[in-house]
């Protein structure tokens, strides 16, 4: 079933605002459940996934106080193999570069070692699988590591996917499923009769829909016409990322993702099967700035070089900065808002690529049944509702006027 079209106006069951990987997976999964879906985005398949390294790092990126998020992360990681197989079929055979390669997190000095030991203890308390290795054992696994590596954690369950190929496959799967793409920016939510009813786009189109999903990544808090009480509290967190290429003569340079915390900053090296080596990432609270800076590139190369000295021999092919959609508790906002018909799928912060499969399934359930599945209840947008507005009634909702 396809949306009805009348000139610039279409009517669908669902309008997804934002065509990054989260918006696309929502659209694809909803259309597989028989809903007529449209996506509004000037550049579908763009967004933070253009920059992301694609680590599926539920275990190595575990943080204190994020045990609830861990459950969702692990659930999504578990779904990845089937998700990738289904997406390959739905996209006409596209490979998304899923690699079950594992991860090695290493320590370069005594402080790093203490930090990793704490992470290991937290992983063990959480029932996760990771193994402590000596420096020598780390280098046996990855001979390009610096001789000074003091020890590390081997995490065989943290894999990788290529986010650019993932985004391209999701666009193809959506197209093949009949999802309509409006290649324009949504400027304003349309609210009619007390419910979300569509959007006004910057090309003048006004697609109408029975339900609207706001999945615009770090821009999700800037859609005009969204009542203040339900506007998602997401902020941009800048990440600079480098891409290098490993000449055939140097392969295999690294066989798995290698990462460390160097002087308090995360650095990770993600080797793809096609020879690309992704090095990330800075984490900067600088608003909407996406400048690639000399300092950012320098720090990433300096830290990566301490970890793997041979990196300086490799051609540097790309430098780029993107914006993670950060939320107040670092976890996503999924499901219905207090405005009938308006749903959120945003705020995935560091875990957008990892959480793609589970987000698609959760959002498809929400859109078809109106219910948030059990595993996603802790991520309902209402957890950030201001007390005065809880529970708000539709007539009192006031537009925020942000665009
Ligand atoms: N998950 C990796 C990052 O956000 O840099």
How many strands in all? 19
Q: Distance N terminus to C terminus?
A: 32 Å
Strand arrangement within the widest β-sheet reads 6-7-5-14-15-16-13-17
Any idea what the shape is?
Answer: globular
Instruction: Give the C-alpha Rg.
Output: 21 Å
CATH superfamily of the largest domain: FAD/NAD(P)-binding domain
CATH class of the largest domain: Alpha Beta
What's the pLDDT, averaged over the residues?
Answer: 93
Strand residue percentage: 25-35%
Largest sheet: 8 strands, mixed
Domain FAD dependent oxidoreductase: 13-364
EC number: 1.4.3.19
Catalytic activity: glycine + O2 + H2O = glyoxylate + H2O2 + NH4(+)
InterPro entries: FAD-dep_OxRdtase (IPR006076), FAD/NAD-bd_sf (IPR036188), Gly_oxidase_ThiO (IPR012727)
What report would you give on this structure?
- By secondary structure, the protein is of the alpha/beta class.
- The protein folds into 2 domains: 4-50 and 165-233 and 328-384, 3-Layer(bba) Sandwich (FAD/NAD(P)-binding domain); 102-159 and 235-326, D-Amino Acid Oxidase, Chain A, domain 2, CATH 3.30.9.
- It is built from 7 helices and 19 strands.
- The chain has helices spanning 21-32, 67-90, 110-125, 135-141, 163-176, 294-307, 356-369, and strands spanning 4-6, 9-17, 37-40, 55-56, 103-107, 131-134, 151-155, 159-160, 180-182, 186-192, 195-201, 208-214, 235-245, 257-262, 265-271, 276-280, 316-326, 333-336, 342-346.
- It has an 8-stranded mixed beta sheet with strand order 6-7-5-14-15-16-13-17, with helices on both faces.
- Helix 1 links the parallel strand 2 and strand 3 (37-40).
- Helix 1 crosses helix 7 and helix 2 (67-90) crosses helix 7 (356-369).
- It is globular, with a radius of gyration of 21 Å.
- The two termini are 32 Å apart.
- The relative contact order is 0.19.
- The site of glycine has 7 residues, from loops.
């Amino acid at each position: 079933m396809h949306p009805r079209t009348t000139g610039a106006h279409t009517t669908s069951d669902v309008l997804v605002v934002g065509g990054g990987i989260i918006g696309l997976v929502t659209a694809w999964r909803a259309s597989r459940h028989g809903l007529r879906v449209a996506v509004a985005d000037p550049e579908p398949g763009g967004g933070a996934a253009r920059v992301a390294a694609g680590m599926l790092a539920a275990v190595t990126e575990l943080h204190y106080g994020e045990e609830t998020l861990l459950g969702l992360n692990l659930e999504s990681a578990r779904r990845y193999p089937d998700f990738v197989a289904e997406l390959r079929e739905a996209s006409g055979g596209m490979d998304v570069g899923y690699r079950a390669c594992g991860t090695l997190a290493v320590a370069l000095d005594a402080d790093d070692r203490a930090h990793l030991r704490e992470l290991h203890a937290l992983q063990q308390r959480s029932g996760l699988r990771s193994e402590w290795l000596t420096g020598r054992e780390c280098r046996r696994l990855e001979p390009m590591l610096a001789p000074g590596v003091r020890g590390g954690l081997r995490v065989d369950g943290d894999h990788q996917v290529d986010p650019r190929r993932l985004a391209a496959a999701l666009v193809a799967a959506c197209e093949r499923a009949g999802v309509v793409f409006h290649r324009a920016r949504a400027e304003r939510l349309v609210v009619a009769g007390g419910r979300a009813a569509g959007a006004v786009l910057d090309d003048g189109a006004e697609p109408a829909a029975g339900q609207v999903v706001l999945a615009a990544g770090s821009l999700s808090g800037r859609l005009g016409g969204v009542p203040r009480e339900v506007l998602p509290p997401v902020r941009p967190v800048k990440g600079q990322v480098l891409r290098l290429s490993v000449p055939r003569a140097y392969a295999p340079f690294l066989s798995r993702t290698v990462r460390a915390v160097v002087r308090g900053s995360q650095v990770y090296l993600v080797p793809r099967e096609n020879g690309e080596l992704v090095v990330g990432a800075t984490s900067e609270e600088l608003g909407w700035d996406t400048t690639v800076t000399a300092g950012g590139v320098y720090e990433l190369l300096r830290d990566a070089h301490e970890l793997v000295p041979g990196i300086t021999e490799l051609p540097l092919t790309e430098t780029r900065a993107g914006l993670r959609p950060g939320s107040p508790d670092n976890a996503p906002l999924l499901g219905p808002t207090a405005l009938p018909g308006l749903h959120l799928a945003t705020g995935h912060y560091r875990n957008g690529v990892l959480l793609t499969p589970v987000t698609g399934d959760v959002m498809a359930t929400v859109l078809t049944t109106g219910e948030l599945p059990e595993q996603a209840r802790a991520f309902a947008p209402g957890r950030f509702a201001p007390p005065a507005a809880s529970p708000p009634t539709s007539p009192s909702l006031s537009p925020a006027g942000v665009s």
